[in-house]
Amino acid sequence: MFARLSFIILAFSVGIITSYEDIKEGKIRNKWILFGFITGACLFLYYIILGEINSFVYLKNVALNSFLAFFIGYLMWQYKLWSAGDAKLFTLYAFLLPLNCYANWYLKYFPSFALLVNTFIFAFIFLFVRAIFSLFTDESKIEEFRKSVFSKTRIKEQAFSILKIFPIFLLILLILARLTFPFNQIFLFIPLFFISKPLSKFLKERKILNLILVSSLLVLLGLVWNREINVLLQAVKVNLIRMGVFMVVLMAINMIVDFYLNKEETKTTFFALWLFLGTIFVSIFKTSIIHLFSRLVRF
Prior knowledge:
Number of strands: 0
Oligomer: single chain
Number of domains: 1
Shape: globular
Structural class: mainly alpha
Helix content: over 70%
Number of helices: 13
Strand content: under 5%
């Protein structure tokens, strides 16, 4: 019990310092990341010697979770979804947080997925509320927004961009349906929001790849899961309306946030703070915001 608490206290300490410095100076200092890793490693060694951590499987899972957090954080840095400091801080939290912090929504091999989802939900809420507030407190921006966002060209561009990734969304839906951890399908679309933009950007100039994806992905799925083609068809039938609604909402949100970011001089999103809030959330509720909300509303 005390071992778990000491790791959480260390994570919270680093979180308070890095959040403050990110808001005040717009940077996450490497010395705090290094401090967290060194102190965390010393804590692991100390509790191994005491015998409070004596499971090789647990240590292996911590190492694997940390590696996947580093890999995904690196990819997101490459996609310019956050800074290198944010990626390192995410890896540190994955290393420090006890695995039972994810007990109610445990994704095998990568339980810190819950932390990642929470982080981007907090960041999105901040950006969306700030964008709406900015629009409706400046009358000149409202007219500019209407002309820029609701042009036929812009709507067609957004619609086509989202339709291109429909088969990939369906693929992820089918894969997750085969996993053992519980999830509500309607809330699956929320984390998909965060991969839609970089994925769409990746596919933008690859017309041949787009054609292959749209025309053959579902066929390949049918071949891979030939005994479960009915599951695939049922997934299409059940989720077609949900996915349609999600894509319309996604298109609207993308246009609002993009307009705001393109007009603002500062694009700071304080990811150190959102990572810290995500850490607090999983430490208290042991799950993601998506899973907790789905249980509360019981869709």
